[in-house]
Amino acid sequence: MFIINCPYCGERDQQEFKAGGEAHIERPKQPTELSDDEWAEYLFMRKNIKGVQFERWNHAHGCRKWFNMVRDTSNDEIKLVYKMGEKPPLE
Amino acid sequence: MSANLRVKSSEFIDETHRISFKFNGKTYYGFKGDTLASALLANDVHLVGRSFKYHRPRGIMTAGSEEPNAIVQVNDNTNRTEPNVRATEVEIYEGLEASSQNCWPNVNFDIGGINNIISPFLPAGFYYKTFMWPTNFWEKYEFFIRHSAGLGKSPTEKDPDIYDHRNIHCDVLVVGAGISGILAAKNAAKNNLKTLLIEEKNELGGATINQNREFNKIDNQSSSDWIKKEINELKNISNLEVKTRTSVAAYHGYNYLLARENLTDHLEKKDKNNKVRQRLLKIRAKRVILATGALERPLVFNNNDRPGIILSTAVKKYADFFGVKCGEKNVFFTNNDSAYESALCLHNKGIKVDAIVDIRDNSNSKIVKAVEQTGIKIYWSHTIVDTNGYRRLSNISIMRLSNDGMTVTGKRINISCDCLGVAGGWTPAVHLFTQSGGKLKFDEDNNVFLPNKYPSDQISVGSCNGNFNLKEIINELSIKLKEFLKIDQTDFDNIAIESEEETSKRNIWLLPTDKAIGKTKPFVDYQNDATAKDIKLALREGFRSIEHVKRYTTTGMGTDQGKLGNMHALGIIADTAGVKMGELGTTTFRPPYTPLTFGTIVGRNVGEYFDIFRRTAMNDWHIENKAEFENVGQWKRGWYYPSNGETMHQAVQRESKAARESAGILDASTLGKIDIQGSDASEFLNRVYTNAWSKLAIGKCRYGLMLNEDGMVYDDGVTTRLGENHYLMTTTTGGAANVLGKLEDYLQTEWPELDVYLTSVTDHYATASVCGPNSKKILKKIIPDLDLSDENFPHMSFKEAKINNIKCRVMRISFTGEHSYEINIQASFGKALWEKCIEAGKEFNITPYGTETMHLLRAEKGFIIVGQDTDGTMTPIDLQMGWIVSKKKYDFIGKRSLYRSDTMREDRKQLVGLLTDDPNIILEEGAQIVSELNQNPTQMLGHVTSSYFSPNLNKSIALAVVRGGKDMMGKKLFIPMEDKTISVTVANPVFFDEENKRLNA
User: Fold this and answer.
1) What is the ipTM of this complex?
2) A39 and chain B: CB distance < 8 Å anywhere?
């Protein structure tokens, strides 16, 4: 059970949060221009990394805000949380 | 009671307080302070259970939670009975009843014992290999297997006890109150850290509490006297909380631990009532100190499982702590010095020790010399090759070990004995450490796995960290504590300690005998009856991974999780496969460390608190009017209102007819309601619904369909434009929370530029839906000022109104196909509104109807219910609802997916109506649909999603999804049932009033 540092509320128990899958997959601005394969890439393809992963989380039972998290899936270490719209760290 | 088995009064046992208890129906006596195990041993009862597979007689093997054999059923009344309880952990109380498990008719004569004789035919994987064929015989096999196996009985009645949960936050959690744990907790607390010390036993002090031999001294006192003084001091430390009888079950990431606190199990029956029995502690600790100690290992030799074969330290603990001798003729079998401690302890208490069999060739340690001086015979370089005695050990046979330890030589020597203390070395209890994600390393010198990489802020200290020498334990603890707690000093920095050194070690995982291995029974996992032979067989059959061998042989898969035997299993695999133990890895240690009751896990969330219900403002009226309820999402919704002993079918038929002929009323409060405001609200709706919203006039309502990005129907409902920048969206009852979550997701992550705010108002409004040809007349009575003419208030529009000066929102919308109104009012006036409608509707026979009638009425109209007629694989096109998908809009959620090659297939399952050829047959929802009866294999075309008998059409109607159904209008299909085949005809899903005349009637 993680302790997650919500960028809006501070440290809270994992129970208050909902995981929302991989982060930084932008919805295509012009879906109709995409081929079936390109659309399927956006729709279905997700990474499943053992190691450092960029994720979306929602403080569902708190402020209801979505935010981003950098987590090492091999040991659940949360390296960073940052707000939606902020740039992902390079390292 | 055989009093002669009590050796001397022990300070831990209150001999003035005699307690009677029953075991297997017979009354015995023990003293306050006894465990069930110690009391049984004091009564000379050694045979306490039967093993799982071979039903071999088994006795008490340990004095702690690692016990694999002495597993009992506690309490015989049906509601408090508990299986799989370790007799070594049960504290006796007046009136305790316990019985053996896994034996029939009784523990002394067990029919399953035949498995022991036929055991050569029951190798590892026997069940997997044998009962696979013929496949359809499994049900017959299963009956017999289930009856002869089984570990105890579960209660058949509701548990009368109270369980509880508690959250604890602390700076330092110390697990285990042996000498390391006590010193760690004391020093943490003294340095202003909020500290919690947890111990699974009822007393503190661990192994040190009865350590009073002359070679271990602290501060010139015996270590037991010294630790007692330390324990006494704990009481005066303010920010230290000590919990005994509390077992840490799980150690999760981020230092989150779960522990079970046992509060009443040791109390007399009369004191148990109305108290919390067990409490689950949910602990968040900033730092964790594991001082969980070490478990003594047995040795793996032929027939090493007979009652009377006990771990050497357990023999010592029973004598020292409980004042009970485990036998009259005591022998020890060892590969290290621990057995000498136990032997010396027994000797000093006047209990005769006949011999020590040691697989080492010598030892020069002080304690061994001391034992030699007592005259106890020591057989160096010998091993036990066999044991005898069915219900109780009677003698052992020993032989000389070869130098390489692989074989035995010379002649058998038989030694008569009824108690064999076994000492196979120590296994650090690293279970919690590994549960937390810690990685182990193998220490070749001591043949132990030790903590290596810590995943969180924690340390392991004492013997769970592989330290078995008192002086080293204390010195290392001092260094580690200072670093871990960032303190300058501890209160035991300069303490004088004397302790002995072990000088000689020898380890043989599987001890040789003079018999072929196939003819021996060297048990590795006592509870699951896995022998060394089984492990070797698994390796011969090609199993290599330790996890696979574990599952195939079931080694370590009992309720004790192989606490005693896992190391031997690994050792034997490594030896047989010729690999190093460190390279083999270990199996996973999973929570809970010891079994938990379900009561502890659920705590207070039982009965009406198991799942929280939501009730509408009108709920009391529904109850008063004898409604039957249906669970929808978390809601309790009125299902139907039977009157005069009606069946559900009769009630629904009556309600449906009334709604169409005159007037009906439905509590629609549970529908999800989302208030949407902001200058971009219209644009937002355009993006989330499939149809267009920009041109919806203020005061008008529109039905909308919402898709997932994959193009599948997600939710539906009517949304009303309340103002220029203000909408009220309704969602399905079950989908409300998810829809809100999804909309927030898009707003916050994809379209943050939109000026839109979402608020759930589901609970704020109560909704009464009045429908039927007389609904207008009823509404006129309730809200006389409102102009209900079609010109002023047409279908799909909205008006603000007042009832007795209370504001309400009225929508003229319909889910039944009838002229109808939905009145939304502040929830606190919901019941009053409802009663007013009923009163006003009396002259029109207004009939309350529930969800079942609502479903029937909408099915007559062919309206879908998301989640009943859809299942996450239906597009709007599949539902024949292409009319609601805007062709003009550039984009909306899921639009692109509607043009994927797969979603455009013509042969997808599509929604159709079905009419049975016999109008009286009602189809079963979920029934499969075929077009050919004598096809092999039969091709399933789809299934029935909704089915009712329509009283208004006087025939059975159904909705179904059928592959290519769109083009099957009029086609005959079949529904094969168990006892008959029903023929049906594909029809238009709108069965009733296709022209929608009644909406404006």
Assistant:
1) 0.97
2) yes
Amino acid, single-letter form, for residue B10: S
A88 in a structural domain? no
Report which of residues B608 and B278 the model is more confident about: B278
In angstroms, rounded to a whole number, what is the distance separating the alpha carbons of residues B480 and B477? 5
Question: Using the beta-carbon criterion (under 8 Å), do B253 and A2 form an inter-chain contact?
Answer: yes
Phi-psi region of B185 (alpha: psi -120 to 50; beta: other; left: phi over 0): alpha
Of the partner residues A30, A43, A84, the one whose CB lies closest to the CB of residue B748:
A84
What whole-number distance in Å separates Cα of residue B383 and Cα of residue B408? Answer: 8
Q: How far apart are CA B697 and CA B689, in angstroms?
A: 17
* Residue among A31, A43, A56 minimizing CB distance to B895: A31
3-state secondary structure of B45: coil
Q: How far apart are the first and last CA of chain A?
A: 25
Average pLDDT in chain B: 92
How far apart CA B769 and CA B637 sit, in angstroms, is 14
How would you class B602 by CB atoms within 10 Å of its CB: exposed for 0-12, middle for 13-18, buried for 19 or more? middle
For the segment B65-73, the average pLDDT, to the nearest whole number, is: 93
Tell me the average pLDDT across B347-363.
94
Closest partner CB to B752 (pick from A13, A76, A84): A84
**Domains: count for chain A:** 1
- Is residue A56 domain-resident? yes
pLDDT band with cut points at 50, 70 and 90 for residue B554:
confident
* Cβ contact B617:B831 at 8 Å: yes
Give the pLDDT confidence of B903-953 residue by residue, as tens digits. 999 999 999 999 999 999 999 999 999 999 888 888 999 999 999 999 999
pLDDT for residue B2 = 46
CA distances from B661 to B644, B749, B837, B1001 (A): 21, 50, 17, 12
CATH at A13: 3.30.2270.10
Residue B435: strand pairing partners: none
Collect all residues from B whose CB is shorter than 8 A from any CB in A.
252-254, 256, 284, 437, 455, 709-710, 741, 744-745, 748-750, 752, 890-891, 895-897, 899-901
Is residue A90 included in any domain, yes or no?
no
Phi, psi for B741 (deg, rounded to 5): -60, -45
CB atoms within 10 A of CB A24: 10
What is residue B518's predicted lDDT score, i.e. its pLDDT? 87
d(CA A79, CA A53): 10
Stretch among B101-115, B793-807, B970-984 having the lowest mean pLDDT: B101-115
Q: Establish if A21 touches chain B: CB-CB under 8 angstroms.
A: no
Q: Which residue has the tokens 């357990």?
A: B314
Closest CA to B312 of B273, B353, B284, B277: B353
Q: Spell out the domains of chain B, with CATH numbers in brackets.
A: 3-130 (3.10.20.440), 162-294+428-498 (3.50.50.60), 667-857 (3.30.1360.120), 861-1000 (3.30.1360.120)
Which chain A positions have a beta carbon within 8 Å of B750's beta carbon? 26-27
> Given its phi and psi angles, is residue A51 left (phi above 0), alpha (psi -120 to 50 degrees) or beta?
left
Alpha-carbon distances, residue B679 vs B55, B160, B688, B757 (angstroms)? 76, 58, 16, 9
Q: Do B896 and A32 touch (CB under 8 A)?
A: yes
Q: What is the domain range of residue A29?
A: 3-83
CA distance B770 to B803: 15
Is B254's CB within 8 Å of A3's CB? yes
Give the one of A2, A56, A58 whose C-beta lies nearest to B254's C-beta.
A2
Q: Is A29 part of a structural domain of the chain? A: yes
Helix axes B179-190, B470-485, angle to 10 degrees: 30
Output DSSP code: residue B245: S
In this predicted structure, what is the pLDDT of residue B1?
Answer: 42
